[in-house]
Write a structure and sequence with these properties.
heterodimer, A: mainly beta, 6-stranded mixed beta sheet, 5-stranded antiparallel beta sheet, 61% strand, B: 113 residues, mainly beta, 0% helix
Chain lengths: 112, 113
Amino acid sequence: KQEVTQIPAALSVPEGENLVLNCSFTDSAIYNLQWFRQDPGKGLTSLLLIQSSQREQTSGRLNASLDKSSGRSTLYIAASQPGDSATYLCATNSGGYQKVTFGIGTKLQVIP
Amino acid sequence: GAGVSQSPSNKVTEKGKDVELRCDPISGHTALYWYRQSLGQGLEFLIYFQGNSAPDKSGLPSDRFSAERTGGSVSTLTIQRTQQEDSAVYLCASSYGQSEKLFFGSGTQLSVL
């Protein structure tokens, strides 16, 4: 059974700092890995999706990397802003029924 | 529609009552997922629909939970004889296919008193 772990559970940084969020997974046989953002009381917004054949994906100030062999992914946020404050979740898509397994998330606070 | 739509956004019910939660996926999306998110917990998979195939119900926590998807579009999650432990946010997501990006609705906050 796939297990997805995100460390740290919470992170507080001053505005302008670059930061890295970590995601690890136990089963490397995945189709893709997706990073999401969740604001309080809201659903999840997809940020980046990395297919299993890819090493990284970039969107604006966000860069996500994938190392299947080590079961790790990172989300890099450059020049953080207060509007980046949210919970960030990673999820793997693997297995016969294409179920998606989520981590519990990292709660990010960017202090002005 | 422009996005995944869920209704109601909030539902307060009494223990023992039945509730129905609705999800309207993005037009053309063949895959539809239901998840449950409890306070401080990760997302818990409930059920998965893919096209006209039989749904994967392996995540439903008890036989009080059921779901259907009519015409390959709108889905309804039904919880019978609700219990307090059913209180959570119920999230619906859809995608074009099994390995494509997931798009989530805003969820239904269910509170069982």
